[in-house]
Amino acid sequence: MTYLAKPRLHHPELPKNKLGYTHRDYEGTVSTLCAGCGHDSISGAIIQAFFELDVQPHRVAKLSGIGCSSKTPTYFLGNSHGFNSVHGRMPSVLTGANLANRDLIYFGVSGDGDSASIGLGQFAHVIRRGVNMVYIVENNGVYGLTKGQFSATADKGSKAKRGAVNNEEPIDMVMLALQLGASFVARSFSGDKEQLVPLIRAAIAHQGAAFIDVISPCVAFNNHPGSTKSYDFVREHNDAVNRLDFMPTRTEITADYAPGTVQEVTQHDGSVLRLRKLHEDYDASDKIAAMTYLQQRQAAGEVVTGLLYVRPDADDLHQLLKTVDVPLNQLGEKELIPGAAALEKFNASLR
Amino acid sequence: MKQSFPPIERVNDFVVKFANVNGSGSASANLLFAKSILRMGVPVAPRNIFPSNIQGLPTWFEVRINENGWRGRRGGVDLMVAMNPQTWDQDMKEIEPGGYLFYDSTKPLPASKFRDDITVIGMPLTEICNRQYSDARQRQLFKNIIYVGALSALLEIEPEAIAELIGELYKGKEALLKPNVQAMHMGRTYAQNELDWPLGIKVRRTSAVGEKIFIEGNSAAALGCVYGGATVAAWYPITPSSSLAEAFARHCRKFRTDVATGKARYAIVQAEDELASIGIVIGAGWNGARAFTCTSGPGISLMQEFIGLAYFAEIPAVIFDIQRGSPSTGMPTRTQQADIISCAYASHGDTKHVLIFPQDPKEAFEFAALSFDLADRLQTPIFVMMDLDIGMQDWLCEPLVWDDARRLDRGKVMTYAELEAGKDFGRYLDVDGDGIPYRTLPGTHPKRGSFFTRGSTKDPYARYTEDGATYVDNMQRLLRKLETSKQYLPKPVRRDAGTKTRFGAIYFGSTAPAMEETLAALAGQGIHVDTLRIRAFPFHDEIADFIASHEQVFVVEQNRDAQMRMLLVNELAIDAAKLVSILHFDGTPITARFILREIGEKLAMFNVMPLRKVAP
To answer: Between these two residues, A248 and B203, which has the higher pLDDT value?
Structure first.
């Protein structure tokens, strides 16, 4: 980590987005994570994604649990409200926040300890409820803050820094998310910003539960030979099934793609996901095929990345609960309180 | 059988207990019985004593008929309607000498199964049903209505009142209405022709019910949530709190559905567990919606970590604790007041919470509505401490009232305009000196007022810190806030005996009806006790004053460890010897008889002689 405070001044010609905000307006305080931490790259990708999407930072609520990854919301979107909740319970807090005001963007950040161990239950239920959110797991296979214990996503047979071997089966968050009905599921790598930024943009634009598992090497405790979450291992075994071009609105295809190599998905808000296929047969709209493919490649020791599944017409929790369009936290006495006359009638029904 | 004890003769003052088999459809027939008496203007206090079971285990329904309107359980039974062979021996023992037994005499029972000091009324219910109905389910269900009909003759309940209720129950369902009325008359006619009627105990029409309403505490509390402006509810099913969440859903469908669009002005989530329930409530509260969860003791245990977060990060939340027999699974369908300590000091570290104690469904409604103002005003979890007896039983109460001029108190929320005008915002800054800081809601202002909420230590501007002095300041401010809370909390209700006395009694919650009845009885014996009903924690100064102004103070509560007394001694630094516990914790609601006996025994120790003998 650095002890230097961020300078307030910045270059007068920093590029601005449509709202007139610069990149700096999407930053937070200086990271206190280790130098080279994958999580910082993810924070950078998040900053870039929101900048490019022209989102007003204060319209985002960022929520996290406990752990290294859960500290990161301090390091991006300094003008957003943030909530560092309790270990493994970010999903429920996010659900409540979302119910209170459907108009904000809910951005959940968690880690593999936070989501795959202590918070596995809440992870499962927030996904199956279809809460409209982005849920990122910054997955490094270890507990960083408590100094390197294996987490539940550590692969069987992978080695800890001091040589201990993990004998337990890993939990694959992507497979779980698919099985539990997430309508947007992706996996990426903190070392591949080009792949990650469009995925985050698409996830933000997605209506429903959008889950991204980002392999994010822990330079302090899990970046050595024998680890399956190291920079080297992931680079060597990265099997990207597609490359995503995210377009807020539809644009003409100008490049000359071979037939069958591009898949386009229009989301609820009109944004278009153009998937350039790297595997001809991979169809991001076919959940069952996706699950089969993931299991096959995982058995072969590969890390499958890309936009793995998307269902653009999913209903989110508010639609399922049929809540009013006005955010619930903005309703006043008139909309909420039935009044004295109604109470008198109620009394009369109890005599 | 020759009776060895004179039969009880009383009008509008007796207890009927139905012993049934769970799942046999008896509950609705028994409630019909209770309500028909209400329709005659005679107050009743019914209690459903049910097992943790869906079908097969014993269940009881006790109805206290009392023209004075005493709502507590009396203890003892004047008429036992024994419909469950499993519990026959136990039920037989409960009948008061001179009482009555009504039973199904289809199969003859040996004389040894009866008592000679009671009046026995046998009616061959099964035989009548088998003759009348061919369908097994009908035989079972109509048996219940038939005995209600028979009882109407024996106790002189007006059949019109029963028929009227059946009519309301099956409105628009003629196919059910007619046979039910017929079954009732069949039972009634049989009793009139074949049995000795009326009994010594009878119902006589009066006007003691008046405008009062008959309502379950959970339903009243849920309606209080509607009137309190709650929009988010998250819960996990647990007896005896589930019916609060279900009632909230019912009231919301009725009162909170947008007429034009059919859309809901509320959101209810049945969460995966209590941890998620309170998490959802905290998330919603943080984001400016009024939110609550309802649970019971085990749920409170599960919520501990989150409650500490809401306390320390200062997030509004409302928690209804419908207390039940504890610890562990305990007696899940019985009542207790045993979560006082676990709620008052919930979570790890130095925490202290606001508790409010309604005494009945009417106060449950009022306190529920109030709790959301308190949560927003104080920015902390508010516990509404109910119990099974209030929550799941129907109580006769004064009508619920609402003042249309009342506004929701949203507490200190800084607005866009204030932020825009450059007003200094520090999330944990004690601007007004009352310990309550200002908050902002997410999404308010593009550049100002955002902050990071966390469970770790922070400075007044919500910045992470590990500085000891800053931590201490913050913890002291939280105490200041708790002190401030008292001005918003329901004050204790003090009632002085007409005569100056050395003795006081403190009670709270569902003990209230039994206590009121006790006082009346004591006064009748010439014993004077001042009383104070606690309605909130942290304790108002009046509570310390009350204790100080008496030599001995009884603290009546429904748990083993005298938890309220513990809290009083601890918080008010009181000489423990001054507080004498009266504890009732067998899972049944406390009775006036019990309190009278306990107080009588204890007063004897203090050499107080009643003018008349204390009732058994």
So the answer is: B203
**CB contact (8 A) between residue A336 and residue B454:** no
Is the confidence at residue B542, as pLDDT, over 80? yes
Amino acid at A267: Q
How confident is the model at residue A3, as a pLDDT?
58
Q: State the pLDDT at residue B611.
A: 57
Phi and psi at residue B113, to the nearest 5°: -80, -5
Predicted confidence (pLDDT) at residue A1 exceeds the cutoff of 50 = no
A–B: how many Cβ contacts below 8 A? 227
Confidence check: pLDDT of A286 > 50 = yes
B60 CA: distance to closest CA in chain A (Å):
23
Tokens of A214: 């980002």
Q: Is the ipTM of this complex over 0.90?
A: yes
Residue in B35, B36, B280 to test binding to A, most A beta-carbons within 10 Å:
B280
CATH of the domain at A329: 3.40.50.970
What CATH number should be reported for the domain whose range is B215-397?
A: 3.40.50.970
Q: Do residues A238 and A189 lie in contact, with contact meaning Cβ atoms separated by under 8 Å?
A: yes
Using CB atoms, which residue from A59, A96, A318 is nearest to B234? A96
Does the structure show a pLDDT above 60 at B2? Answer: no
Out of A52-56, A223-227, B24-28, pick the least confident. Answer: B24-28
Residue with tokens 């209590």: B274
What are the angstrom distances between the C-alpha of B456 and each of A111, B380, B467?
A: 18, 16, 11
Which segments of chain B belong to CATH 3.40.50.970?
A: 215-397
pTM over 0.95: yes
**Cβ pair A93:B266 closer than 8 A:** no
Could you give the residue range(s) of every CATH 3.40.50.920 domain in chain B?
493-605
| Gap between the Cα atoms of B280 and B291, Å rounded | 8
A29 located within any domain: yes
* Confidence check: pLDDT of B586 > 90: yes
Considering the domain B493-605 in this protein, what is its CATH number? 3.40.50.920
Q: Distance (Å) from the C-alpha of residue A299 to the closest C-alpha of chain B?
A: 32
Q: Do A96 and B279 touch (CB under 8 A)?
A: yes
Q: How far apart are CA A308 and CA A103, in angstroms?
A: 27
Question: Could you count the other beta carbons within 10 Å of the beta carbon of residue B464?
Answer: 15
How crowded is the C-beta side of B431, counted as CA atoms within 13 Å? 13
Choose the mutation target among B450, B453, B459, B464 for the interface with A, i.e. most A CBs under 10 Å.
B450
Give the strand order in the sheet containing B232-235.
B267-270, B232-235, B291-295, B317-323, B381-387, B354-356, B536-537
Q: Could you tell me if B208 lies within 8 Å of chain A, comparing CB atoms?
A: no
**Is residue A216, in this structure, part of any structural domain at all?**
yes
SS (H, E, C) A141-173: CEECCCCCEECCCCCCCCECCCCCECCCCCCCH
- Per the structure block, which two tokens stand in for B545? 């004053």
Q: Does B40 touch chain A (CB under 8 A)?
A: no
**Considering chain A, what is the average pLDDT of its residues?**
94
Domain that holds residue A305: 23-334
Determine the Cα–Cα distance for residues A233 and A228; give it in Å rounded to an integer.
6
For A25, the closest chain B residue by CA position comes to B447
Out of A89-98, A271-280, B355-364, B426-435, least confident range:
A271-280
| CB < 8 Å to A54, chain B | none
DSSP tally for chain B: helices H, then strands E: 20, 23
Residue B439 has what DSSP assignment? B
Nearest Cα of chain B lies from the Cα of A281 at a distance, in angstroms, of 38
Is A3 inside any structural domain? no
User: What is the model's pLDDT at position B591?
Assistant: 97
Compute the nearest-CA separation of A23 from chain B (Å). Answer: 14
A 128-187 residues with CB < 8 A to B: 129
Question: Does B207 touch chain A if contact means CB atoms closer than 8 Å?
Answer: no
What is the assigned CATH class of domain B10-202? Answer: alpha beta
